[in-house]
């Protein structure tokens, strides 16, 4: 801008100095005319400069907005979740191996990489061999005896099963009454008895071709000895 002012000043000076009237008339330009033209030129240049400043400000604002939009777009792009971790099937009061977790991450342009983890309890079905809880805080050891589910499913699948079917627990003892008497005391009728063997879940999740859970069917309700631990009863 300063160079433009000097150039315009020189041009005005030449015009003033070279304005030689051939008719001998006096020069019409005075010092005031020169100062006026100089100030006029300066004002025009200042106006142009203000227009450029406004454009630069608008472009800078737009650039900042687009950069922030780009950052937000990158932040919202999470990666895929990893696969769930495996359960370890331990029948203990420990939390170890009773939680599954998975993780995902996303890239940040200003703070590196962020990640988040979520977890869930292992399914109680995976602890079919866990007979009891290990204290009031044990949320994953079977809060009910999973053998009940096996027993009622087995009783329901028998040919004699008609109507409402119940798997009634029986104390395995020589002093216990028979399943016939057990069902009768509940105003039910016994049609079979079984023994669900607890603690036989030795297989891991990916084991194939190995012995797993098993039970024994008596096809009788008369036993009064240690043997059937469930009575199949119906209405």
């Amino acid at each position: 801008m300063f160079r433009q002012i000097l150039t315009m000043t020189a041009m005005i000076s030449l015009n003033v100095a070279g304005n030689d009237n051939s008719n001998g008339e006096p020069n019409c330009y005075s010092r005031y005319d020169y100062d006026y033209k100089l100030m006029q030129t300066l004002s025009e240049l200042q106006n142009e400069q203000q227009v450029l400043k406004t454009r630069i400000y608008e472009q800078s604002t737009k650039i900042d907005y687009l950069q922030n939009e780009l950052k937000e777009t990158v932040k919202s792009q999470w990666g895929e979740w990893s696969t769930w971790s495996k359960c370890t099937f331990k029948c203990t009061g420990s939390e170890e191996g009773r939680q599954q977790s998975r993780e995902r991450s996303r890239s940040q342009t200003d703070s590196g990489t962020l990640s988040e983890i979520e977890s869930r309890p292992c399914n109680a079905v995976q602890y079919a061999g866990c007979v009891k809880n290990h204290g009031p805080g044990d949320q994953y050891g079977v809060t009910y005896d999973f053998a009940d589910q096996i027993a009622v499913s087995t009783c329901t699948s028998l040919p004699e099963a008609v109507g409402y079917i119940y798997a009634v627990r029986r104390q395995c003892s020589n002093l216990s009454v028979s399943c016939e008497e057990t069902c009768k005391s509940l105003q039910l009728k016994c049609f079979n008895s079984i023994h669900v063997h607890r603690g036989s879940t030795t297989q891991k999740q990916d084991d194939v071709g190995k012995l797993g859970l098993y039970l024994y069917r008596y096809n009788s309700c008369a036993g009064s000895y240690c043997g059937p631990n469930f009575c199949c009863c119906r209405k």
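Residues 93 and 138 are 6 Å apart (CA to CA). The chain has a mean pLDDT of 76.
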